[in-house]
C-alpha cells in the first residue's frame, strides 16, 4: 500500500522513539513489534524482517510475533514453508487465533495446495466472520485457481466490510488470473462508500 507523504512523515517521526526504547530495553517486545511495522510501512522489508525475527527470539509468546513475521515471509520466494511453521506454532499456543489460520490459508495457496488453503481460510472466517482481510485472502485463493465466480463473491464481501481493499485488489498480482473478468473489473473500479477499515490486509 502506498502511503501519502504526510503519513510517511508521521511514521518516520515515531521510529526514533522505538529505537531509543530498544537502546534502554533491547528486548522490549512492543517496541520491536512497532519498529517492524514502521519499517514495513516505509518499504523496508529487510529491516522489518530483522525486527520481527528479533521479536520471535526475545518474546516467543508475544501475540503478534510469529504472525507478523509469517505474513511478511509468505510473499517472499520460498517463504511459504516458514510461514506455515510460524502459523502452526501460533495455533499450538492459541488454537482460536483466526489470523494464524488465515496465514496458513495464504501460505498453502502460495504453494498451490488449494484444498488445505480453502480449509484453513474457512476455519479462520468462521472464527472471525467480520474480518475483511480474511475474506479477501480467500478471494485471492479462488482467483489463483481461476475460480472467478467464487473469487468475485468473496472479494465483494471483503470490500463491503473494508473499502480500502478495493484499491488493494487493483494491484494485487493474485488477481491476475481473473483480471479480465467483467464482474471483477466492475467491483474493483467502481466507487463505493467509505468502509470502516483503513489499512491494507495482512498479506501486504
Describe the structure in your own words.
- This protein is an all-alpha fold.
- It has a domain at 130-194.
- It has eleven helices and no strands.
- The protein has helices spanning 5-24, 29-41, 45-58, 65-73, 80-93, 98-110, 114-127, 132-144, 148-161, 164-171, 182-189.
- Helix 3 packs antiparallel against helix 4.
- The protein is globular.
- The model is unreliable at 1-12, 21-26 and 193-200 (pLDDT under 50).
Which sequence of SSEs, written as H and E, runs from N to C? Answer: HHHHHHHHHHH
Low-confidence stretches: 1-12, 21-26, 193-200
Total helix count? 11
Largest sheet properties: none
Strand content: under 5%
Helicity range: 55-70%
- Mean pLDDT across every amino acid position: 83
Rg: 17 Å
Structural class per helix/strand content?
mainly alpha
Shape: globular
How many DSSP E strands? 0
**Cα end-to-end separation:** 7 Å
Task: Considering the chains and any ligands shown, give keywords for the structure.
204 residues, 69% helix, 11 helices, mainly alpha, globular
Summarize the topology.
Elements: H1 5-24, H2 29-41, H3 45-58, H4 65-73, H5 80-93, H6 98-110, H7 114-127, H8 132-144, H9 148-161, H10 164-171, H11 182-189
Helix pairs in contact: 1-2, 2-3, 3-4, 4-5, 5-6, 6-7, 6-8, 7-8, 8-9
Structure in a nutshell:
This protein has about 200 residues and is mainly alpha-helical. It is built from 11 helices and no strands. The radius of gyration is 17 Å and the shape is globular.
Amino acid at each position: 500500500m502506498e502511503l501519502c507523504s504526510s503519513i510517511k512523515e508521521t511514521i518516520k517521526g515515531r521510529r526514533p522513539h522505538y529505537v531509543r526504547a530498544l537502546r534502554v530495553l533491547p528486548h522490549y517486545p512492543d517496541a520491536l513489534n512497532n519498529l517492524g511495522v514502521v519499517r514495513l510501512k516505509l518499504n523496508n522489508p529487510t529491516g522489518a524482517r530483522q525486527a520481527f525475527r528479533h521479536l520471535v527470539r526475545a518474546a516467543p509468546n508475544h501475540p503478534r510475533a510469529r504472525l507478523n513475521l509469517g505474513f511478511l515471509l509468505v510473499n517472499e520466494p520460498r517463504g511459504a514453508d516458514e510461514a506455515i511453521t510460524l502459523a502452526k506454532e501460533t495455533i499450538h499456543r492459541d488454537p482460536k487465533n483466526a489470523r494464524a489460520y488465515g496465514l496458513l490459508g495464504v501460505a498453502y495457496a502460495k504453494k498451490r495446495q488449494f484444498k488445505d488453503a480453502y480449509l484453513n481460510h474457512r476455519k479462520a472466517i468462521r472464527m472471525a466472520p467480520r474480518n475483511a482481510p480474511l475474506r479477501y485472502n480467500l478471494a485471492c485463493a479462488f482467483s489463483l485457481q481461476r475460480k472467478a465466480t467464487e473469487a468475485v463473491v468473496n472479494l465483494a464481501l471483503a470490500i463491503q466490510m473494508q473499502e480500502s481493499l478495493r484499491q488493494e485488489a487493483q494491484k494485487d498480482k493474485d488477481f491476475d488470473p481473473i483480471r479480465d473478468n467483467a464482474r471483477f473489473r466492475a467491483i474493483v473500479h467502481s466507487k463505493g462508500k467509505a468502509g470502516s477499515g483503513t489499512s491494507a490486509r495482512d498479506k501486504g
